[in-house]
Recover the amino acids of this structure.
């Protein structure tokens, strides 16, 4: 089969809503697009362990500590099966990590913001995981089989994460004045970066064209963002938190909220490396990866010796 | 010391070991040599925090003045903690953590095997559940001792140095004090002399197979049974207890 015939057969499968599996032939651009997207997703799970891990030793109760530990383990686990899904596309974990370290691969911009207080752990669970779920639910129907199946499992766990984050915020809002201030402050700092998680407006989204044709992406950035805002505003109201957006209004006609403009300057600045924690996150990952080299070498040497 | 005081103290010893061990292991989050190992270490941390919660809750019940598991974890000072010294030592490099894990998990394996026979049914309940976890912790530490001991020259050297550094904290694990004496008579606490013999034998076997020499040291550390700790514990507690101390009126 020549390249055009392969592409045609591939697109036919896509149009019939059939999953593409690792052994199927696929256009090179599709494969590369997926590697980029899935690895970015995997790296996000792993880098996301840093801001949350930062609070495990200071979690304010034994219950909160256990929940946070379990949650971060889930994230690490998501990272693992996303790396595995990515490896089915013909790239190794070592190469993926290398791409992260050289800056060729990205991770979610949200983790370039710092987790400053305990309320940030609530805000991350509620807003960040809440935004991630909206995106991931739509990815359960993505065209690449291993990625879609990974998403089904990930979504189940993420909804638990979102509830734990919301519970932290709700408890703090029922607490002392200092706790309520802490919660609102976290809300103020995490709201806008959470909206940015959905990426640029549809009109400015560079990777969307092919992603829709190949059914990697099922819903647009703006559609997903709207969904997130609509469900979150009500949740905030229930526990008495204020959304830090003066222009937020219910729009009867579209049956959704209108919101103020996102600061795209900030978005671009942080994505391009100049956020509060970009350097810190990457230095941390590189440092501990390098420090673990002797352990990986020892394990490999031992395995080699024992397989003789 | 009354029987009730002895039991309260004994439960704190068990609970504090788990709490402090859980804290130290959780420090590995996002810092392990690779992702699978990150998950393994924090999973063991989670086991320990769960166990700490069970023992501290029971300790609060026995004490009978209304202190909860969280009160006991977050509102006691350095001198009221009864974990063994080795548990509170900083995590060090990966070899140091593995050596610590081996010493501790083999100790706990025999300790908890004995505790499942305790006359106190709450202790046996917690011990039975914990023993399953400890068996995995022991397996994990043993496997890594083999890999590091027989892996590369560097890994062997690091592991040997770790055991050398930790050895002076091992004898303390088997010290018995007043609370032990009172409770052993009733079959509630265990005789650590039995545990000590078995521990020595198993550690010697594992280290031999891992080509690690048993260290010789001329001084053994002691103190934790009397609430005398290393300087490290204060820092650990300052971090762990910070929110509870800074916002005493808050519930989380």
């Amino acid at each position: 089969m020549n390249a055009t015939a392969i592409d045609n057969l591939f697109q036919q499968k896509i149009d019939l809503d059939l999953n593409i599996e690792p052994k199927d032939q696929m256009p090179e651009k599709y494969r590369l697009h997926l590697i980029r997207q899935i690895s970015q997703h995997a790296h996000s799970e792993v880098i996301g362990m840093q801001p949350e891990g930062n609070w495990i030793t200071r979690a304010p109760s034994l219950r909160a500590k256990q929940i946070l530990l379990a949650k971060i383990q889930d994230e690490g686990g998501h990272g693992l099966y996303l790396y595995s899904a990515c490896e089915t596309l013909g790239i190794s974990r070592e190469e993926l990590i290398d791409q992260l370290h050289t800056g060729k691969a990205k991770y979610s911009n949200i983790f370039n913001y710092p987790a400053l207080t305990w309320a940030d752990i609530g805000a991350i669970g509620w807003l960040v995981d809440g935004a991630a779920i909206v995106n991931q639910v739509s990815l359960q129907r993505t065209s690449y089989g291993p990625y879609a199946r990974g998403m089904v499992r990930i979504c189940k766990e993420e909804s638990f994460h979102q509830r734990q984050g919301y519970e932290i915020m709700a408890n703090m809002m029922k607490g002392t004045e200092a706790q309520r201030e802490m919660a609102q402050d976290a809300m103020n700092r995490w709201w806008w970066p959470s909206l940015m998680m959905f990426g640029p407006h549809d009109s400015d989204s560079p990777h969307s064209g092919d992603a829709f044709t190949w059914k990697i992406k099922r819903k647009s950035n703006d559609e997903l963002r709207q969904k997130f805002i609509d469900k979150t505003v009500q949740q905030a109201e229930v526990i008495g938190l204020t959304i830090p957006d003066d222009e937020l209004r219910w729009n009867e006609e579209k049956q959704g909220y209108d919101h103020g403009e996102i600061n795209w300057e900030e978005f671009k600045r942080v994505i391009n490396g100049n956020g509060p924690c970009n350097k810190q996150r990457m230095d941390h990952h590189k440092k501990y990866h390098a420090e673990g080299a002797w352990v990986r070498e020892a394990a490999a040497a031992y395995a080699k010796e024992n397989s003789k | 010391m009354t029987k009730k005081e002895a039991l309260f103290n004994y439960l704190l010893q068990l609970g504090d070991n788990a709490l402090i061990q859980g804290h130290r292991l959780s420090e590995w989050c996002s810092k392990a040599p690779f992702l699978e190992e990150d998950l393994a270490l924090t999973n063991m941390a989670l086991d320990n925090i769960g166990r700490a919660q069970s023992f501290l809750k029971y300790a609060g019940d026995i004490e009978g003045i209304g202190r909860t598991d969280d009160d006991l974890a977050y509102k006691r000072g350095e001198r009221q903690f009864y974990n063994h010294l080795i548990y509170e030592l900083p995590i060090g490099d990966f070899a140091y953590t593995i050596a610590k894990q081996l010493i501790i998990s083999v100790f706990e394996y025999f300790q908890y095997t004995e505790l499942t026979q305790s006359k106190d049914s709450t202790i046996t309940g917690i011990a039975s559940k914990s023993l399953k976890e400890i068996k995995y912790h022991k397996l994990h530490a043993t496997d890594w001792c083999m890999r590091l001991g027989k892996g590369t020259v560097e890994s062997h050297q690091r592991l040997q140095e770790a055991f050398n550094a930790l050895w002076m904290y091992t004898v303390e694990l088997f010290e018995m004090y007043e609370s032990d004496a009172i409770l052993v008579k009733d079959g509630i606490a265990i005789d650590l002399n039995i545990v000590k013999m078995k521990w020595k034998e198993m550690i010697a076997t594992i280290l031999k197979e891992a080509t690690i020499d048993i260290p010789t040291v001329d001084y053994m550390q002691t103190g934790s049974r009397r609430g005398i700790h290393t300087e490290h514990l204060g820092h650990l507690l300052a971090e762990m207890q910070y929110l509870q101390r800074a916002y005493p009126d808050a519930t989380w």
Remarks:
- Chain B touches chain A through 49 residues (CB under 8 Å).
- Residues 56 and 70 of chain B are 8 Å apart (CA to CA).
- Chain B has a mean pLDDT of 97.
- DSSP finds eleven helices and no strands in chain B.
